[in-house]
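Forwarding these from the shared drive since the link keeps breaking.
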Amino acid sequence: MSSTPAILAITKMLESLPESVQEQVVEHLREYLADLQDELKWDNLFEQTQPQLVAAARRAKQEIAQGRSQPMDYERLRS
């Protein structure tokens, strides 16, 4: 895999910094990339389940319109 211009630019920028600062930057990048990966994972999971969520919402709306639903009894949930 060849390096993109963006990766080459970042590499040159890092090389111009003292080693201790390079380590700090790399640690921040690791954390940032891990967060991005988590977000991508959640986006992908949401995208995969979106049709099911839409279908469930439609069923719920239909049940409400047909009078087949009841308001939530929060006191029953506490028991």
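-- next protein --
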Amino acid sequence: MAMPSLPHESSFRNTRLCIVGNVNRDVKTAPFPSGDYLFQDGETSLASIHETIGGGGANSAATAAALGAHCDFIGQVGDDETGRRLEETLRRAGVNCHLHRDPGVATGTTVNLVYESGQRHFLSCHPNNYNLRIQNLNLSPLAHAHHLYRADIWFSEAMLFGGNQRLFEAARQSGVATSLDLNWDPAWRHSSPDVVERRKDAIRGLLPLVDLVHGNVRELCEFAATSDRGTAIERILNAGAGAVVLHMGAEGAGFFSRQESIVQPAHPVQRRVMSTGTGDVLSVCMMLLHRDAAIPLPDKLRLANQIVADFIEGRRDFIPRL
């Protein structure tokens, strides 16, 4: 039996997405073998090293614009050349930028080590993102947005402890649907249990204001203090979230709410060119399709998985180079 046709991507162009999150420079390596030799003196030759836009928020904004959506990005850069390059690159990619320029901080950089195994390691220094504060953000785009996406929730303590609450309350007052990216908190591996629990509590308090929680299995299980995927989803829904969009890698993608649970297998991938950013692409697709009630959820997931596969195979290039 033939597969039903996918929804048309013109649905993306009907959505106004507002994103608050990180922006920085990414220095990315071509995939290379991991191993203990990396901890010794020496040098490793690579096929390529290149600079791109970085930060989950900025990458998601560029992806949304590339898919045809109206996208406003709210964030912070330093008053430096790197910040100006990042803003200009985002604008050329079709993103409407609302960036606070802070002369007291430097615009950050991440070195993205990509291993042939598919795993990655990030070396990051983000003064501009660590110092993000709600009082410096221009929230006027919320007045005409359909959906708010808060990416990179763990980086700024000022946002974590108070700022995010004000942001989501402002979105609710404007009648805007909301999403939160429950990504990996570096404190989970390096801070005391008391500090980790306090940070998790800050996010749990936001969940009643969140329509869609996004994350992969490892992130959600770590946040929910369980090794079982189903238990993690249940705990997040019990805390008040409307639904969970689950990134499942080679298994595909899932959508879980009180009303329905759907898992859609991944679209086949013939060759792997991109190994980072696939979760951002999936999340953006699901946010842009969120308000279109005419498209069944399985079809939304199928279209998202198809676009993710195109991105992995290098047929779609969503991340602008500097």
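Residues 117 and 221 are 22 Å apart (CA to CA). The mean pLDDT is 94.

- D.
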